[in-house]
Fold this sequence. Notes:
This protein is of the alpha/beta class.
Amino acid sequence: MSTSSSQAVSCKTWLVAKGREVTCGERPLVMGIVNVTDDSFYDGGRYLDSERAIAHAIELLEQGADILDIGAESSRPDAHSVKEEDELGRVVPVIAELARRITVPISVDTTKSRVAQAALDAGASIVNDVSALRGDTAMASVVARSGAGVVLMHMQGTPQTMQAAPTYGEVVAEVAQFFKERMRVAMEAGIAQMNIVLDPGIGFGKLLGHNLELLNRLPELAMLDRPLLVGVSRKAFIGQLVGRSAEYREWGTAAAVALAVDRGARVLRVHDVGMMADVVKVAAAIGAAASSGRKAHDA
Ligand code: HH2
C-alpha cells in the first residue's frame, strides 16, 4: 500500500499573490524550468537570449506547464555568482513579456531581494528562493509586502560549498526541523502560512543516499501542512544511478517524478514539461484510484 497519496497536503491551501489561488485540482502541478543562464547544468546557454527564453517558456506552456519558473543564476555545484545588475537584466524583460502574454503564475528563481522585487513588479507572483530567505536579509519583507507565494528550499551550505562534504545525523529529521525554523522566520516577517511551499532541495548539499532517503520518506515532510515542491529533473543523483550525462536522464527523471507524486509531492519542477506532465497524470491517477479502492473496500 502506498503511504503517500492519502497523506498529501491539498494544494487548494496554496494562495499566491494578489489574492490569486493556485490549486492542484486532480493532479499535482508541473513547474516548467526556464534558465536564462549561460552555465546551468543541463541547458546553460540555450536560453540566455531573452527572445529564446520567451519562446521556450511559451513552448513549455503549450506542453502543459502550470507554473513557469524563470531563473538567471545557476545554483549547480560551483556555479559562479551572477551580479545583481546582470540577473535583473536577464530575468526582468523575460518575465515582463511573459506576464503580458500568459496567465499561468510566473515564479522567479532568485536569492536576491532586489531581483525578486523587480520580478514581482514585472508580473511574477511566486518567489522561488533556494536559500529559504537566508541569502538576503530583505527577502522576507519583499515577499511579505507583495503577498507573493514563496518556495522555501532546504540546502546545506551554499552552491559553492554544498557538495564538498554533506553531513547529516538524520537527514529527514534535519530537513523537517529546517522547514519549521524557516516557516517561523517567514511568518514572523509577515508571510502568510498559506503562501508557503516547502522543498527538500534534492541535490543541494546531499549525497546520493540523502537524496534517495528524502524522496522515499517525503510523506514525513508533509506533516507541516504545506505543499511540497520537488526538483529532481535530470539531476546528478539520477546520473549516479544510471550512469548517463544530463542529456540522457529523462527516463530516470520520469521514475523519480512518478514516485515523488506517489509520495505526496504537489509541485514538480522539471525541464521536460510535455513528458513529465504525462508522468504526473498517470502517477496521480493511480494514486487516486488506490485511495477510492481503499475507501470502497473499507466501506
Ligand atoms: N533546482 C535547481 C534550481 N532551482 N529550485 C527549487 N525550488 N528546487 C530545486 O530543486 C531547484 C531549484 C537546479 O536545477 P536547474 O535550474 O535546472 O539548474 P541550474 O541551477 O544549474 O540552473
